[in-house]
Amino acid sequence: MTGQPLLDVRDLAVAIGRQADAPRVVDGVSLTVGRGEIVGLVGESGCGKSMSAFAIAGLFPTPAARVVQGSVLLAGRDLTTLDARARRATLGKDLGMVFQDPSSFLDPLMRVGDQVAESLRVRGQNSGAWTRVVELLALMELPEPRETARRYPHELSGGQRQRVLIAAALALQPSLLIADEPTTALDTTVQASILDLLLKLRRTLQLSVLLITHDLGVIAETCDRVYVMYAGRVVETNTTEQLFRAPRHPYTRGLLRGTLAVETQTADLFSIPGTVPDLRHMPSGCRFHPRCPLAIEVCVTRDPPLTARRDLSGADACWRAQEPAAAHVWEDVTWSR
Amino acid sequence: MEPLIEVEHVSRLFRTGGGWLRGARDLRAVDDVSLAIAPGSTVALVGESGSGKSTLGRLLLRLVPPSSGAVRYRGRDVASLRGEDWRSFRREVQVVFQDSGAAFNARKTIGASLQVPLRYNVGLRGRQLRERAAALLDQVGLDPAVYLDRYPHELSGGQRQRVGVARAMASEPQFVVADEPVSALDVSVRAHVLQLLRDLQRQSPELAYLFITHDLGVVRAVADQVQVMYLGAIVERGPVAALFGAPGHPYTRALLAATPVPEPGRRKLTTALRGDIPTATDVPGGCRFHTRCPLAQAVCRETSPPWVAFDDGVESACHFATDVRHLSPADG
Questions:
Q1: Which ipTM value was assigned to this complex?
Q2: Nearby residues of A216 by Cβ (< 8 Å), 6 or more positions away
Q3: B261, A196: Cβ pair inside 8 Å?
Q4: A84 vs chain B: nearest CA distance in angstroms?
């Protein structure tokens, strides 16, 4: 990555509710996505990864959620300072977004081609819209794009519907695509072809992608860099290769150990004991300390900042990640309740 | 070993359409399937959505009757079970669904829901009911003092799935159909539920599972045997390690190639499969997979492939199974 990143999120916080002490689902997240880069955001349900994405796009699923701190710089412009109208104008033009369940984002009574064309028409691009739609569907590798454009959502498979939504998200040629679990509801065969498509779009269009997923296998196969989130914070970030080869945070190590591989039979099925903390009762100090076998006093009292380490790429937010003990953190932990 | 449950040439058709303009057509969800499950074994049934794997599971549970063929439990046709025999079948054969939350009565506490099978299937009464319900929750790793009086909506997805397992286990089953039991769960919670199912089998060594899933990582973690289903038919079967190590059917190869590997740089994604699974109203002639197969030849369009059996227990329904098994995983 050279020069200024396309997306530069700094110290972002999202709260649910209006009161001053409203619980923060996202709390001080910083991340960047370079041009033509695919960046993964991974974590368990409830860790704030989707909320981060909604905050970046300025699209909240609930009116109670709001950005309370930080900035979202897209190509140097801070999106958080824009008014609602200017904000809407950036959607689609500067960034596109796709979600987990393609069916719920398509109107069942409208031809899919018209739905893709809609994003062009609301920007006044009426002439040639249909030709452009057919081109887009072809770019998404949909079979018989001319005929497909005339079909209704129920006539398409789940994978084809997701391709239609990616076409709609990219209709105005945004430079950034935010994909929130785009393949989680799909068969693995279809998932593989959608991920292939994202890799191709990155190559041919220099598209940047922020890919949100809970599946480390998906990350390994598509992303250049990764951010690992836990309880509203980024706890580790690195290149994909380094993160998998030399994970540092106990949470990342636990997630990796719990991933099922098809090639080897895992004798013990591992999962990190305990559960993600409740938003309203965040643990003191390091938010992971109640589940961490390495936790010592400092972990309970002081919150570890995301820190770059000498001679290592990436960064981690752990007081003990540099100690030799960290490498063996989960060794003696077997499955527990 | 005498199989616990056996499927013999079972087919199931569903009539679709039948609208005003279009005539009714038959959808062949399950097409001449045979398989046997031994006591104490775990058989995985894999395939894409629309392959008919859930319908096969429902046939085994007698939730839908077969259009032809028979399902035998301990040697007896389940369609003929009546009275006491039918009651004991319903006690011994249980199911865990993908979303157990939706399978619970929202207006009953977890404890009350667990007491239903205990009362009617096991015959417990009075204080025993609550005590046994508590013991079941404890067994699946949920504190009875907390969860007995909770309602389904108060539980997380992983907790509901564990309660779903507890309810299946309440009847002390011999055979459990688990239909995508962990697909809706986070990776970290998934391991809990899978380990729980494994532990329960260790405690009752006769217990057999049919594990319906599209996740081959899950298959690797729990199953001994795997059956691969495509468009209503079994196309390959065998011991998990042998079959995943060297699949003989191009469809199994494609499924394996599509499974993400959590090792960066290990493998580039390859989309070996063309298009989507056809609908079961238009099953292609010859080999049903030929329309999507990267290796299809003229013979595949004309003749339905015979079963080819290998020494390591793998059986494949492909004209070129021997060649396919010798391909390395990297070959297109």
A1: 0.84
A2: A42, A244, A255, A256, A259, B187, B262
A3: no
A4: 35
